[in-house]
Specification:
Layout (H helix, E strand, L loop, with lengths): L1 E5 L6 H10 L3 E6 L6 E2 L5 H11 L3 E4 L6 H6 L1 H19 L5 E7 L19 H13 L4 E6 L1 E2 L10 H10 L4 E4 L3 E2 L2 E2 H14 L3 E5 L5 E2 H12 L6 E4 L19 H7 L6 H12 L1
Helix pairs in contact: 1-7, 4-5, 8-10
């Protein structure tokens, strides 16, 4: 297959594209970055139409997003352009064609007590609301919307993921706070890439949670990650995000119920122990 990856040079795209190529697919890469294979503004209809016409993909994977929660809260118009308009452009151009769309969404469309089923949408900030609005734009066409969270080593210069931040903090004895009241169900970035490749080949329609089959607090994840790497955690303290002053509200429980995707694929998704082991292997 030929995949057009929108947002190909970010934390996920930089590891997804090589994984797709290893699986035997052809990959073309879009970014706003002027050194990209295709430097295209994803909110400009004419530019994206030309990109799709030029590359003629079998499937488009949309990773373009503004994920800075506080920035979205302070700049809702910017959040709309990045998280809604880019999806609307793709939906407009792909509807009625044979090109399949995979749209990456977030576990932050949920709030309240989890694990959350796909129907239990309740965003609590501008970021989550904008991502949900982007999902709605994709529902009039042949597409999968995947709500997810991922961990793993970043290969993008200057861009740290959650585990990169943990590894650096523990290695350098930085004083950090680990939140024991924030729960999530992440996949490792390679596990997510494998699932995306499968979705691209099978092309199901619908909205699916895509994460670990169980959950863990961010503090619990950090401590297990450090323990398996033999890192000293004495400089870290435990705390509660709910007690911190924040510019934007945050959901505290983003655990995902993944039964729908497991039934679709016919296999179990990894549990948290397998996710942590995969993350540890990035730094071993």
């Amino acid at each position: 297959m030929k995949f057009l990856v929108m947002g190909a040079y970010g934390l996920l795209g930089s590891r997804l594209c090589p994984a797709l190529e290893v699986a035997g697919h052809r990959v073309v890469k879009q970014s706003r970055w002027r050194e990209a294979e295709f430097s295209v503004e994803p909110t400009d209809l004419a530019s994206v139409e030309k990109l799709i016409s030029t590359t003629a993909p079998d499937a488009v994977i949309n990773l373009n997003a503004l994920t800075d929660v506080d920035r979205c809260e302070d700049n809702p118009v910017e959040a709309y352009r990045a998280n809604v308009r880019s999806a609307e452009v793709l939906a407009t151009l792909l509807q009625g064609t044979s090109i399949y769309l995979i749209h990456l969404s977030t576990d932050q469309v949920y709030s309240g007590k989890g694990p959350h089923h796909e129907r239990q949408v309740l965003p609590c900030n501008v970021y989550g609301l904008s991502k949900y609005a982007g999902e709605l734009a994709c529902q009039a066409m042949r597409a999968s919307v995947l709500r997810t969270n991922f961990v793993g080593h970043s290969i993008v210069a200057g861009r740290l993921g959650f585990t990169d931040w943990l590894y650096r903090a523990f290695s350098e004895d930085q004083k950090i706070t680990l939140f024991e009241d924030v729960w999530f169900s992440p996949l490792h970035i390679d596990q997510l890439a494998s699932a995306l490749e499968w979705v691209g080949r099978k092309q199901p329609n619908g909205i699916f949670n895509l994460g670990a089959r169980d959950g863990i607090s961010k503090a619990g994840f950090a401590l297990k990650f450090a323990e398996r790497l033999g890192l000293d955690t004495s400089s870290a303290g435990l705390g509660k995000l709910a007690e911190k002053p924040l510019r934007a509200p945050r959901p505290l429980d983003m655990q995902l119920e993944v039964n729908e995707f497991e039934r679709l694929r016919g296999t179990a998704l990894p549990d948290i122990d397998l996710v942590i082991n995969a993350a540890v292997a990035d730094y071993s």
